[in-house]
Amino acid sequence: MLNHVLKIVYSTITSRHKAGTSTQLLYGVTSNAVQQVIDRLFQSSLKSHQHCITQLMELRKSNETIEFPEICPYAYAYVFWRKSLLKEEHFYGFNSLRTSLISDVAPLLIRELLEYFSDQVVNYQMKIRRSIDMGGLSWILEKLVLQFCENFFCAWMETAGKRSKEISVPSWKEIENMRDRSFPDVAFKYNFDESSSSSSIEYYHLQNKEPLLTNKCNCPNQHETAKQDIQSMISCTPQKVAMLNMSNPSDEHKILQKTVETYVKKLSF
After folding, report:
1. Using alpha carbons only, what angle is made at residue 100 by residues 212 and 216, rounded to the nearest 5 degrees?
2. Which of 85, 132, 110, 103 shows the shortest CA–CA distance to 186?
3. What is the secondary structure of 89-146 as a DSSP string?
4. CA-to-CA distance for 140 and 201, rounded, in angstroms?
5. Which of 112, 154, 166, 245 has its CA 20 to 30 A from that of 206?
């Protein structure tokens, strides 16, 4: 795949801050960046698959006795991209499709890498100007997170077609390899003019010339009545089924609970 080097420049009249980066800054910047990517996805690649995501997140099916429907690969990619990125415990049961990220929830999958980059930038700023440009630091972190999240989603899309049909997920080791491949190749050049207290940051990264998602997947829910069908399905999350079995014990509900547990286990990492 062809790449070209993209250069982006950030410049500012600098303000001075004490040494030491704030964890709150890291969390706030990364959380906002991830939310930006989520919003972009729902405006583009996932625009016509929101009902598919609802079906997977809420574990919906037509009735208690039949099997779960085929998983849409776009829903699969989004749900497990998000789960792995934020290291969420479950892939099901979100309150909404675009649940806002809490400011103190950073994308934990790359937290150590972001902290490393933060320390490198801060150390360099302190060396050449004895203060920290927090705006510049935030800008760098945002660029890293935005590009990583987009690359990481594409990595999930690459495996979604096959895995969604198999009802399986990669091992955590495979996910870590996806993470490593998705982290952007970048270089920074920091310029500081002491006489004017102005600075600029040149950010270079490799960018694909081809569209991010060139491999189209087949969605099983694109017929006209799909949204209505999914809307009428019942949610069979483990919590709901367990409560159903407690309030109304029966052999059928016990079988349903076991079926749901088996299904969820296939999609757990």
Report:
1. 25
2. 110
3. S-SS--SSTTPPPPTT---GGGHHHHHHHHHHHHHHHHHHHSS--HHHHHHHHHHHHH
4. 8
5. 112
Tokens representing residue 246 in the block: 């407690």
For the record, the structure tokens of 217 come out as 């997947």
Distance CA 242, CA 220 (A): 29
- Alpha carbon 105 to chain centroid, angstroms: 12
The rounded distance, in Å, linking the Cα atoms of 82 and 87 is 8
Residue 181: count of CB within 10 angstroms of its CB = 12
For tokens 């829903």, the residue is 75
Q: Which token pair is 1?
A: 């795949």
SS3 content of the chain, % helix, strand, coil (to 5): 55, 15, 35
Predicted TM-score of the model (pTM) = 0.84
Output the tens digit of pLDDT for each of the chain's 269 residues: 334 444 444 444 444 444 444 567 778 888 889 989 999 999 999 999 999 999 999 999 998 888 999 999 999 999 999 999 988 889 998 655 555 554 455 567 988 888 888 888 888 777 777 777 777 788 888 988 999 999 999 999 999 999 999 999 999 999 999 999 999 888 877 776 666 666 677 777 776 544 455 457 899 998 889 989 999 999 999 999 999 888 988 898 899 999 999 999 999 99
Cβ atoms of 97 and 53 within 8 Å: the answer is: yes
Q: Measured at the alpha carbon of residue 240, what is the angle toward residues 237 and 244, in degrees to the nearest 5?
A: 135
Q: What's the CA gap between 136 and 138, in Å, rounded?
A: 5
